[in-house]
């Protein structure tokens, strides 16, 4: 390979090292099966159940499938969501033995208590309305929202939480209402509502405590992620403060912040942003420590160790596809990261040996050519491919000619400006404007 003078020797050595396995002996994480118990322990409430059911529906491993259903069954029986319980029982279909079948006595008991609770809430709310006590009415609607949420009626829960807004008397009440609406909206997959209520909550900055701010950032990040606005999503996840901890386990875990933020940043940030906003970000570094694999692949990508970076990505992929929020975006994010790696690899060189590059990216020469063709067509790489000799030649701009053309253009613009100024000065000198106006008056 011929290397341009501007390319640093350090970067070149790192890039060459990708094609030589003997030069790097870092342990790569194994593609181990997801530890369901450890994973489920990160979450609480409804999201814990929905994540387990998502894994059961999308995993190829029969034992993991049944284990996820068993854990979901046990978790649901701690609550009051009979509708979700019936769905899980139907999915289990007797495969877990007599202990995991439809418990009619439990269902009847929960439904009976639910009816009694609903009647009590209705009578209390009617009394509050009659007495016109705003605070009591607000609490009544919140209680109804909690009731519907616990029983899986998410649409009714959302309506109840939102109705409480008319009876909010302080900024803290509004923020509490927004957080409830955000929680239910995320569960329903209505991420436009999430963005809306995050904005409403942020309009009351004086009442926002650090924990609430730390909850709003990942909520907004999830909304941007769903909209495939990966750069905006990355910024929100990266802005999440350490106060989050386990305080938002009903929505997201700290490990998710690292994974979502890291992958979105790799797919959308340039090298400068990656260094300043991710690698040197002290707050985000705390999250990355929880997921060493993501931390290592980010450092490998920035250090141009693409073979190791792609190994990490490959080993993480199976588990990422089982993530309820990330699964639809894994392929797109991986493609973007790979394309950025290909572009970054070619930048320092005048010519690149495709055989060595294919070895670095662990792909075939034919496959690499197709990827490079697509990037060249999209004008992301300025180069041409010599398919016969398997060499990529960069089309670097002629800086000398470009500078000369800019100087000529600047000279022309200056000449036009000076001529215009001289013309204006001549018109003023001969009082042309005044004479013309006098003629019009006559």
Q: Can you walk through the features of this model?
A:
Strands 1-3-2 form a three-stranded antiparallel sheet. It contains 22 helices and three strands. The chain is mostly helical and 442 residues long.
- State the assembly state of the protein chains: single chain
**Shape by Cα distribution:** flat
How far is the first residue's CA from the last residue's CA?
81 Å
Low-confidence stretches are 1-31
**Counting H and I runs of at least 4 residues, what is the number of helices?**
22
- What structural category arises from helix and sheet content? mainly alpha
Mean pLDDT score, rounded?
85
Biggest sheet statistics: 3 strands, antiparallel
Number of strands: 3
Radius of gyration: 31 Å
Please state roughly what percent of the residues sit in beta strands, choosing from under 5%, 5-15%, 15-25%, 25-35%, 35-45% or over 45%.
under 5%
What percent of the residues sit in helical stretches (DSSP H or I)? 55-70%
Pick out its properties.
442 residues, 3 strands, disordered N terminus, 3-stranded antiparallel sheet, 22 helices, 68% helix, mainly alpha
